[in-house]
Each structure stands twice: as C-alpha cells, then as structure tokens.
Amino acid sequence: MKFLVTGCGSIGRRHISNLLTIGNIEVSAHDLTPDGRNKVKELFGINAHENYEDALAAGPDAVIVTTPTNEHISPALEAATAGCHLFIEKPVSHNTEGLAKILSIVKEKGLITLVGCNMRFHPGLKKVKELLDKGTAGKILSADIETGSYMPEWRPGIDYRKVYSARSDMGGGVILDAIHEIDYARWMLGDVAALCCMADKLSSLELDVEDVADILLRFTSGTIAHLHLDYVQRVYSRNCKFVGEDGVITWDFNEGQVGLFSAHNKHWTWFKQPPDFELNQMYVDEMRHFVNCITGVEKPVLDIFGGAEDLRIAMAVKQSAKEQQFISLIQ
Fold first, then answer.
1. pLDDT by residue (tens digit) across 8-34?
2. Which residues of 104-129 are buried (b: 16+ CB within 10 A; e: fewer)?
3. Number of alpha carbons in the 13 Å side-chain half-sphere of residue 251
4. Does 120-277+304-328 match 2-111 at the fold level?
5. Beta pairing class for 140-148 and 237-244
6. CA–CA gap between residue 96 and residue 87 (Å, rounded)
7. Is residue 181 classed as helix, strand or coil in its secondary structure?
8. 158-187, pLDDT tens digit by residue?
9. In what order do the strands lie in the sheet with 48-49?
10. Tell me: domain 2-111, CATH 3.40.50.720, correct?
11. What distance separates the 2 farthest-apart alpha carbons in the chain?
C-alpha cells in the first residue's frame, strides 16, 4: 500500500515515522519548502516531492493531509478527485469553503476517510466512553471538559508567534485548535442542539486570535456541557467530568486515571492507564486504524462527515462569541 504525506512539519513527520513502523507501507512525502523535504529525506530516506501533482501522479492509495489548517481543502480535494483515500488532520479546515465538494466526491467514489482527532485513541478517554456506554453513572445530566496550556512553551526554540495556532490567517485560535474537546464531547454525548460561547484574546501574548474560550453545549439528550479552552495556563491541564443521576465519571490527563463514583455504594473506583503508555501510541493506533479501515477490517471512528460536523459546531461557537448570541443547531 502506498501513502503520500503532504505537509512535512512536526505532525507530518510523526505520521511518516509511524507509518514506517506499522510496516508493509510505501511512504512518500510532499512539501513546498526545501527544508521540509530535506528533513524527511534525512530522517526517513523517503522520496519527497516539490510538486504535488507529481506526487499524486505516482499513484498513492491514500493521502495524509498535514498542511496548516487553512491549506487542508485544496490538497484534500485534489487527492479525492484522484481517487485517493484521505486522512486529514484536525480540524478539517478553518471554514466550510470547498468542503461540500469534497464530501460529494468522497461519497460518490466511496473513499475511506479519517479525521485526525487522536484523543479518541487515548486509553483514558476510551475508558470514559466505555463507562458512559455501559450506563455506569446513569443518565448524564452535565459535563465539564477542560484543556489549557501555555502556547509559548509548546515547541522550545520555535517562535510561537509564527506557528499557525497564533495566526487567524492560518486557521489558528483556541476554538479550532482545541477542537479535540468539541469532538470528544460529541463522541461521548451525541448530537449538539444549541450552544453559546464567550471567547476573546485576553492575555498579553502576541496573537491575533482568541486565547480563552468558554463554551456551553446543549445536547439533543438534554445534557448540558461546559468546555473551557485556553492557550494561557502555565501548567498543562486536560480533564473532564460527567455527572449522572447514579454517579460521576472523571478523567485527568496528568494523573493518568479515570474515576467512577457510584451513588449506590458511595465508593470511588479508579482505573489507571497502562504504566508503559506513551503519547505517541495514540498516533500509532490512529494510523493503524486508518490502514485497517482501508483494508475493510474496521470502520472509521471519525470520517470526514463527522469531522465536518465538528467544524460546523466550532464555526457556530465562533459566531456565538462574535455576535454574543445563543445559537440553535437544529435543522
């Protein structure tokens, strides 16, 4: 099987490495910059194309799109038109322009697609999902979901002001950047019926995007969830809590554990993640899942249609913050 990775930044290089680890996959790359091409050639010894049309002409079975967010649609559309299966990093795009055309081609050609929301492969959140599906906390009434970290410390040695997350013209901002939380809220709780948001650029960081967002989601089930997203916390934080009629389910990224409180016996049960778990395993599992979807062994946990729904919610969140309005998503 032949894979093409377009966009050779840090996430593109991670996917190349993991694909080579999985084995029995021929990997090539495409990047517009000589530095990007040279880096993957040196690290992995693979062919790296300057011209995207040449890269597609080599006949890849699947294309991995890891360009900046605002540059996802064009290469994805060309790949889909060429009949390639698609993996697109989250979010699908920075707006909905051109998305309907891709969705139409994917449906017409029966292409396999996956959107890169790797948190769906984290053992902690997978355990939370399992407990929710089993009804261990009863009917879920509310949820609190949080993620925050200090952007300048993400990539030592790299000027944070130049990365896509800090720039509105490249699809940055914490709402789109932290779409993982919107995605797994929907994964856990179902369809979103309505929402509202307050968001702004509040810190002294040199950004032109929102760095703090607080979102309220009302689900069709009636559940109300609060999501807090930020670029400003000086200590990394990622956690969630689901409150049910019969108990509470919690997860904390830093603690590496899931908690289940039972209202029946007033007892906490703790589920520790595997002691040898490494973060890259999420990405390996994600890419292996994509390969298995192409071969028909599995079905995508988040295809492009699901990714498009995540984006629709995120864009409504941004609209709510801008217009200071409560927005209904019921169609």
1. 999 999 999 999 999 899 999 999 999
2. ebbeeeebbbbbbbbbbbbbbbbbbe
3. 27
4. no
5. antiparallel
6. 17
7. helix
8. 999 998 899 999 899 999 999 999 999 999
9. 48-49, 26-30, 2-6, 62-65, 85-89, 113-116
10. yes
11. 64
